[in-house]
Amino acid sequence: MSIEFPEEIESLRLTFANIVAVTHPDQLREQIADLSKQAAAPDLWDDPEKAQQVTSNLSHVQSELARVTKMGERIEDLEAIVELAGEEEGEDRELLLEEAAASLEKIQRDLADLEVRTLLSGDYDERAAVVTIRSGAGGVDAADFAQMLLRMYLRWAERNEYPTTVMDTSYAEEAGIKSATFEVNAPYAYGTLSVEAGTHRLVRISPFDNQGRRQTSFAAVEVIPLIESTDHIDIPDSDLKVDVFRSSGPGGQSVNTTDSAVRMTHIPTGIVVSMQNEKSQIQNRAAALRVLQSRLLQLRHEQEQAARKELAGDVKASWGDQMRSYVLQPYQMVKDLRTGYENGNTAAVFDGEIDDFINAGIRWRKDSEAGQEQ
Prior knowledge:
Layout: H1 5-23, H2 25-39, H3 48-86, H4 90-117, E1 129-135, H5 139-159, E2 164-171, E3 177-184, H6 189-193, E4 198-205, E5 214-225, E6 240-245, E7 261-266, E8 271-275, H7 281-312, E9 322-327, E10 333-336, E11 342-343, H8 346-350, H9 355-373
Parallel strand pairs: 4-9
Antiparallel strand pairs: 1-3, 1-5, 2-3, 4-5, 6-7, 7-8, 9-10, 10-11
Helix pairs in contact: 1-3, 1-4, 2-3, 3-4
Organism: Gleimia europaea ACS-120-V-Col10b
GO molecular function, one term: translation release factor activity, codon specific
Keywords: Cytoplasm, Methylation, Protein biosynthesis
């Protein structure tokens, strides 16, 4: 074995110490004690919404603490295996060194993922996320691409055991979707997925072209933080225009039978939100208002950032129009144009294996922000 285990383990410990300094395990334990006390209250479920928030926060904090403490234990176990190998000879020594090498590789990969979580320190990074996908230029291919992206993100959430709710889907006439909006109800979903916002491009032989020509199509991904009751985004009724219409799309008892779908327009900004996932008009109106409030919150945040940049004399845009390219023909490659990260297994990417793209994007964003501050 050519691996210098003492140096590698020291490097792991240094990175882990930096993570511990940011995550503050003692504070996490205090939060767990407080949330556990709230969760044990006999009247907890008198307010189901608050109860759900308490139990969700408790689960998240417990998971965060377990992730950190478990990593520390894994590094200690690796060190013990290496020490034991030093006491053995021959085949036993080689087997232990092979086990240590495999453990080292996995710890390095998982520690890098854990380190990325510490980079999520934005104002709304810890929030759940509302994601909207819209088809762009490219006709029916673009609508099909938008549906492929929708499945990709839902599969990613499923792989990570993040609950999702598809709130609205507008189907295209021939195939695919014009747009779709869904929630990812997990802590730090916004901070994680926000690096996915931007224009995505697909290059492939069009399955909708009888001549089998190569087609380039585009889809836009928007990611906003989910509104919370403490945000106080008040919207006067005079600023709203609300239209009701019949839901469209496949299946469901309420589809095409009642005017339950809602289209809400915020007159001052022109922001439009449509909801048809719920069965009643009241439920769809509430869902539309929540997403509208989230978008106004994001708009306010962007305006504050723009004002700070203007004061600092920085007018450079952080995001280009096209941030990722999915090429299926003449070769197969998914490449992020900001980070340079690429993956030749396009089937796996479209099946939700995008964590490496997301992690690279979070690191790229942090490096970009650090460069702007200098």
